[in-house]
TrEMBL record:
Species in which this protein is naturally found: Cytobacillus praedii
PANTHER family: REGULATOR OF RPOS (PTHR48111), RESPONSE REGULATOR SAER (PTHR48111:SF2)
Domain OmpR/PhoB-type: 128-227
Pfam families to which the protein is assigned, alphabetical: Response_reg, Trans_reg_C
Modified residues (4-aspartylphosphate): D51
Name of the protein in question: Response regulator transcription factor
Highest taxon of source: Bacteria
GO molecular function: phosphorelay response regulator activity; transcription cis-regulatory region binding
Domain Response regulatory: 2-115
Key word DNA-binding present: yes
């Protein structure tokens, strides 16, 4: 998922960027509200981290303009002396705030919490190229997979298998059907090929691959992604 970090302090932007990149997020940077609006207009941004006190356009003004067009999650960064502005920002539509200096683990937790809420309650699931069941979300336009708000990295073949089954959640497909849909060729003894990929996908998306929540086997028939 794409996260925009906006703060006039480059060191803070770089530090937050490192923390979030280590969690698998893609980072965009801005150093005032004007630049933040330009990034949002030109990129698909899934969450904004916005400082309050900045030149050209502060975080309050930027939040007001963002909310005119978008309901993406927005977390405000504030100093302890900015309580009034923090409350104003929340009233204008900011979803959360974090006070400087901040604990990196707290920041990451708040980001993931807002992304879970966003992907569960709205925006992303309304797009025609987004496939969702429970906490599993596949955004086919950006080729991003998340499970409970956390990004998952799959190989191209694994991605195609999971997307196909998720787009048809609840329906059981035989190994031969999966092979022919994903590889676009007639299946000749595809059991091992498909089974290996299924096992690898489970290792990446399931909390307990031996007791899968999403990608399940229907013995004697094939596989399905559970419709939740």
């Amino acid at each position: 998922m794409n996260i925009l970090i906006c703060d006039d302090d480059k060191a803070i932007v770089d530090a937050i960027g490192i923390y979030l990149e280590n969690e698998g997020f893609s980072i965009f940077k801005a150093f005032n509200g004007v630049e933040a609006i330009e990034v949002i207009d030109g990129q698909e941004i899934h969450l904004v981290i916005m400082d309050i006190m900045m030149p050209k356009m502060d975080g309050i003004q930027a939040t007001r303009k963002i909310r005119e067009e978008s309901n993406i999650p927005l977390i405000m960064l504030s100093a302890k002396t900015e309580d009034y502005d923090k409350i104003l920002g929340l009233n204008l539509g900011a979803d959360d705030y974090i006070t400087k200096p901040f604990n990196p683990l707290e920041l990451i937790a708040r980001v993931k919490s807002q992304l879970r809420r966003y992907t569960t309650l709205g925006s992303l699931e309304t797009k025609s190229d987004v496939y969702k069941t429970g906490g599993l979300i596949i955004d086919d336009e950006s080729k991003i997979i998340t499970v409970d708000g956390e990004a998952v990295q799959l190989t191209p073949v694994q991605y195609k298998i999971l997307k196909f089954l998720t787009a048809n959640a609840g329906r059981v497909y035989s190994i031969e059907e999966i092979y022919e849909k994903v590889w676009n060729e007639t299946a000749f003894s595809p059991e091992n090929t498909v089974s290996v990929h299924i096992r690898k996908i489970r290792e990446k998306i399931e909390i307990n691959p031996k007791e899968p929540k999403y990608l399940k086997v229907v013995w004697g028939i094939g596989y399905k992604v559970e419709k939740i």
